[in-house]
Amino acid sequence: MKRNIVIATVAAAALITGGTATALATTGDDDSAAKKSSVQLKDHDRKDDDGKDDDRDDAAENTAEAKAAKVTAADAIKAALAKTPGTAVSAELDEEDGGLVWGVDILKGNTWHNVEVDPGTGKVLGTWVDKDDDGDDAADAARVNSALKGSATTAGDAARTAAAKGTVTSVDLDDDGKAGAWGVETTGAKGAESEWHVDLKTGKVTADRTDHADDQDGQDGQDDRDDQNDDGSDD
């Protein structure tokens, strides 16, 4: 359900071509490009032949980003809602033009808003109306409202609850299954990423078994290929 968009790229394209960018329609007095985040990231790009484990590089990057975000997911959602009232549907810690930002998607009526919050200060950097090119905004809104009907747990609640499992880096409404839940991603002290489900009605946190099963299936498949390679080398 994440609807975050790369605002700066679209804005640049619009300026160069002299055209307009629908996704950049602004709300309130936010009619300029997003302000620069106070949390600037070091260049994590490394050469493929550096001889280091990619998983270790990813873990180090995850740890660095989690530590750099002084503002929690719950607080970012609160700040976004104070600026743009509505229903927070997702929040994600992400890199934007070299800086770290919280991107929060808010639904107000049938209109989607993207709010960027500084993870260092908690200040709102900018807000935009996010329009789907396919014109599915109303359908998306109806699906979200249906999934959240009777819910007692908000995105902010889910973020606060799952924080006991690690640093929350993403909260997203998971409405694919019959039993809706908030999908939450966390980063551990050593950079390991985990995924959780937070029940919409009870707020109970459970591990995302589907994700675990996919990882296990992938590992089993790799083991099978390794066995086949070993058999071939014996010939």
What can you see in these coordinates?
With 235 residues, the protein is α+β, with helices and mostly antiparallel strands. It has helices at residues 7-17, 54-68, 73-83, 137-148, 155-162, 209-234; strands spanning 87-96, 99-108, 111-117, 124-129, 167-174, 181-187, 193-199, 205-207. It is built from six helices and eight strands, in the order αααββββααββββα. An eight-stranded antiparallel sheet has the order 4-3-2-1-5-6-7-8. Strand 7 (193-199) and strand 8 (205-207) form a beta hairpin. Helix 3 runs antiparallel to helix 5.
Main β-sheet description = 8 strands, antiparallel
Give the integer mean of the pLDDT values: 77
Please tally the β strands and state the result: 8
How large is the count of helical segments? 6
Helix-strand sequence = HHHEEEEHHEEEEH
Pick out the low-confidence regions.
4-32, 45-49, 212-230
- Could you give the distance between the termini? 50 Å
Placed side by side, the strands forming the largest sheet appear as 4-3-2-1-5-6-7-8
Structural class: alpha+beta
Silhouette: globular
Strand content range: 15-25%
Q: From the alpha carbons, calculate the radius of gyration and give it in angstroms.
A: 20 Å
Helix amount:
25-40%
Quick summary:
The protein has 235 residues and is of the alpha+beta class. The chain has six helices and eight strands, in the order αααββββααββββα.
